[in-house]
């Protein structure tokens, strides 16, 4: 799976600045604390994402808690930049400071193996055990910082943002799945992350517009039905037209196709969970395609719970039973 044109990328297979594992003895004080931190990370995910929770149940036990720990840190960073911190009364400067503090605490914990922040501790334990390098984590925080200065993005900025906010999260998960990812697996993880993020941008068009964000620039050749000039600012105002929607769905479908190939390269005990996520986002893309572009500015498209459950079963049958969708 891949978006090789993502700007500012670093190779996921790099082992520079890899965390050094520390002792983690079952039944020790550190082991008990780490278990508690992973339980806390699981509670965070359960509170925020039914889709992810469903997909995670299909992952093998050896990776399930690690993946929850990765996504819990991602969720906490999102809450700093996406409104929760602002609702708590933090102004822009304070939110930026909170994000910097979280980033610094994460790197410190990756080095020392300990944090008083349970979510950070859980992530650091996973990073150290699975070899998630700092050069995969840094772009994530850089993209989160971009959200603190909202505005419409051009194509290069959008690719950089998606690499840091989504593709590297896929790479973190890949390090959990396999100790030394191949270039083909790296490409697959990146494409899956990009597809998921761009689907989210289409789904959340209305909400992002209220925050002054424009994540979906449309090339001029797609935008000729107006005046032949790209209007990324219009997307920030929630005014994506049918041509723009089709353009982004085309990019998403291409990444989903690349990701589909990459899933087959993953270990058997994780393919079911990744396949479930792939099916869930493919279904969401289908529903977005069936929704008029004008409605996306007012409505958040969802996949009903009973459909999600059916897709999880379908993923299980395909990856464990060998059937095709």
From TrEMBL:
PROSITE patterns noted in UniProt: SQUALEN_PHYTOEN_SYN_2
Give the residue ranges for region: Disordered: 1-29
Tell me the pathway: Carotenoid biosynthesis; phytoene biosynthesis
Output one GO MF annotation. Answer: squalene synthase [NAD(P)H] activity
Q: Which UniProt keywords apply?
A: Transferase
- Which ranges are annotated Polar residues under compositional bias? 1-13
- One Pfam family, please name it: SQS_PSY
Q: Which CDD domains match?
A: Trans_IPPS_HH
| GO terms, biological process | carotenoid biosynthetic process
Name of the protein in its database record: Phytoene/squalene synthetase
């Amino acid at each position: 799976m891949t978006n090789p044109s993502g700007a500012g990328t670093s190779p996921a297979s790099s082992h520079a600045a890899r965390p050094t594992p520390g002792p983690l003895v079952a039944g020790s004080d550190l082991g008990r604390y780490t278990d508690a931190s992973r339980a806390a990370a699981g509670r965070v995910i359960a509170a925020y994402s039914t889709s992810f929770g469903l997909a995670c149940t299909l992952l093998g036990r050896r990776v399930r808690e690690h993946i929850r720990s990765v996504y819990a840190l991602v969720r906490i960073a999102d809450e700093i930049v996406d409104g929760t911190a602002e609702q708590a009364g933090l102004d822009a400067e304070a939110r930026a400071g909170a994000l910097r503090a979280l980033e610094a605490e994460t790197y410190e914990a990756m080095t020392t193996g300990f944090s008083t922040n349970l979510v950070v501790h859980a992530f650091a334990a996973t990073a150290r055990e699975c070899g998630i390098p700092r050069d995969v984590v840094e772009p994530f925080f850089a993209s989160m910082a971009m959200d603190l200065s909202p505005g419409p993005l051009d194509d290069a900025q959008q690719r950089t943002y998606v690499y840091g906010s989504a593709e590297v999260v896929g790479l973190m998960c890949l390090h959990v799945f396999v100790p030394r990812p191949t270039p083909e697996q790296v490409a697959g993880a990146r494409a899956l992350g990009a597809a998921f993020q761009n689907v989210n941008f289409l789904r959340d068009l209305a909400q992002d517009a209220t925050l002054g964000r424009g994540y979906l620039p449309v090339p001029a050749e797609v935008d000729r039905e107006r005046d032949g000039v790209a209007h990324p600012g219009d997307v920030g105002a929630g005014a994506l037209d049918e041509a723009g929607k089709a353009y982004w769905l085309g990019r998403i479908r291409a990444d989903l196709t690349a990701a589909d190939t990459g899933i087959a390269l993953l270990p058997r005990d994780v393919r079911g969970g990744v396949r479930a996520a792939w099916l869930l986002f493919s279904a969401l893309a289908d529903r977005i395609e069936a929704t008029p572009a004008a409605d996306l500015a007012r409505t958040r498209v969802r996949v009903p719970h009973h459909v999600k459950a059916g897709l999880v079963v379908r993923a299980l049958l395909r990856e464990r039973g060998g059937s095709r969708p």
